[in-house]
Write a structure and sequence with these properties.
The chain is of the alpha+beta class and 79 residues long. Helices cover 23% and strands 18% of the residues. The N and C termini lie far apart (49 Å).
Length: 79
């Protein structure tokens, strides 16, 4: 494959980049006959979970990798 042993499955010690989306929400109503199309064409407000490099970036729809309020304050102060 790619000559890498740290990818290909979700287990301790391996790289993990993935997202999980809860399709049982009103945002996806009527589109569940094709889950891929639902994710591509529906416009949900927030993602469920996103993991990059084995660490949560988004958890339960909330960005956890940075302090959003601190980022906003630094942008406002820079103006």
């Amino acid at each position: 494959m790619l000559g890498r042993t740290d990818i290909g499955s979700l287990e301790a010690g391996k790289c993990a980049d993935f997202c999980a989306i809860n399709l049982n929400r009103l945002d996806y109503a009527g589109a569940l006959h094709d889950p891929v199309a639902a994710v591509v064409f529906c416009q949900p407000g927030a993602g469920g979970f996103t993991v990059a490099g084995g660490k949560f970036v988004v958890k339960e729809g909330q960005l956890v990798s940075i302090d959003e309020h601190k980022q906003v304050r630094s942008i406002i102060q820079a103006r």
